[in-house]
Amino acid sequence: MNQPRIGVVGATGYAGVELIRILSRHPLLKITYLAAQKLEQSETYGHKISAFRQFGELPALEPFDLERCLDLCDLVFLALPSGISGRLALQIHHAGKKVIDLSGDLRLPKEVYESWYGLASPLTQKDTHAVYGLSDWQAEQIANQSLISNPGCYATAALLSLLPLCQTKLVESQSVWVVDAKSGSTGAGKSPQPHLLLSELSNNFYPYRVGCHQHTPEIEQKLQEESKQADLQIQLTTQLLPIPRGILVSAYIPLCSTISFTDLYEIYQNAYHDTPFVSILPCGEWPQIQSVLGANTCHIALHVDNRTQMLQIFAVIDNLQKGAAGQAVQNMNLMLGWPMETGLSLIGSAP
Ligand SMILES: NC(=O)C1=CN([C@@H]2O[C@H](COP(=O)(O)OP(=O)(O)OC[C@H]3O[C@@H](n4cnc5c(N)ncnc54)[C@H](OP(=O)(O)O)[C@@H]3O)[C@@H](O)[C@H]2O)C=CC1
Ligand SMILES: CC(=O)N[C@@H](CCC(=O)OP(=O)(O)O)C(=O)O
């Protein structure tokens, strides 16, 4: 079989570069199209992104052109800002190509998207719904699909932490689940913004978009679907850490019945027994962002507090890997019928 031809649009952004880092080592495909926006003319990728300086096997980086993208690709990753990405994803998909959209544009119903993102949704009534690409949770639903909406970074860490609870009777119906989430600065993309200056960010740490973060409905939607509790809510706090990469989610969940650590651990092990990318840590071990940097992995730790009748659940991911490019490549592997770990590292880069 010919190797599938793969394109990346948004190839100079943080998620795009991470995609190309992974795809350039993937054994079963050929990268045939790399595009961004602010380019006068085509140039070598290594000239623009110096980490690739000596890597001469990539196509030239071009200003995006839809016709060329359709001519040159069988499957396209869109790593573009929300508000731009979804519309292009639908155009490319309607032209018969497989698409993985990393933006928030196709993750939510039209009205919900418009109220949380403050942008016009690209969805119309007749659009095929994209499949939500939470690959470690629903690999079967992703296999052989042609339009995937890749989850948000906070949403990935939160959902991997919380979804196994949805199939138990451990939690109060109508309870509010507290999700305290912290991210490194690459989560905000590479566009210059004052709050991302070294002098603002270093030696600093603070919450942002409290009460209105766009991943709130994305997380609630999936939890409600899996628990069949339409009123389940989360209280999400997002915070900016003075590090470039990584997310730590700490979730606090009221219990309505008691459970031992061993039984809870078994529920989580069973939930992720099919994936090599999610590890449940043994009793008393706590996850560290450093352990997942550069890898498409998620480490989850559990604590049952019998004193307060609460569960504490902690998860770490690399926002650019499991939270974006790594999960997107895992989704591609599933879509194309390949083993889902193909081309993906299981080992973090730290220390
Ligand atoms: N960063 C992260 O951790 C995560 C990001 N995401 C999502 O992935 C997407 C990309 O994020 P990120 O890489 O951080 O963003 P960046 O701002 O770092 O990169 C955006 C990329 O899109 C390109 N671009 C922008 N507008 C256009 C256009 N009209 N036509 C062609 N190319 C265009 C930019 O090129 P140029 O510079 O030439 O304009 C750049 O290559 C976003 O939707 C984001 O929400 C999802 C999960 C995690
Ligand atoms: C640190 C930081 O700013 N992180 C980003 C997360 C980016 C992301 O995943 O956003 P989408 O929903 O558009 O994909 C944020 O909080 O908006």
From TrEMBL:
A single Gene Ontology CC term: cytoplasm
Domain of life (superkingdom): Bacteria
Chief place of localization: cytoplasm
Any single Pfam family the record assigns to this protein: Semialdhyde_dhC_1
Catalytic activity annotation: N-acetyl-L-glutamate 5-semialdehyde + phosphate + NADP(+) = N-acetyl-L-glutamyl 5-phosphate + NADPH + H(+)
GO biological process: L-arginine biosynthetic process
Enzyme Commission identifier(s): 1.2.1.38
One GO MF term: NADP+ binding
Semialdehyde dehydrogenase NAD-binding domain location: 5-145
Subcellular location: Cytoplasm
Active site feature: 153
Record keywords, A-Z: Amino-acid biosynthesis, Arginine biosynthesis, Cytoplasm, NADP, Oxidoreductase
Pathway given in the UniProt record: Amino-acid biosynthesis; L-arginine biosynthesis; N(2)-acetyl-L-ornithine from L-glutamate: step 3/4
UniProt function note: Catalyzes the NADPH-dependent reduction of N-acetyl-5-glutamyl phosphate to yield N-acetyl-L-glutamate 5-semialdehyde.
Record-stated family: Belongs to the NAGSA dehydrogenase family. Type 1 subfamily.
Protein name: N-acetyl-gamma-glutamyl-phosphate reductase
Lineage: Bacteria, Bacillati, Bacillota, Bacilli, Bacillales
Name of the coding gene: argC
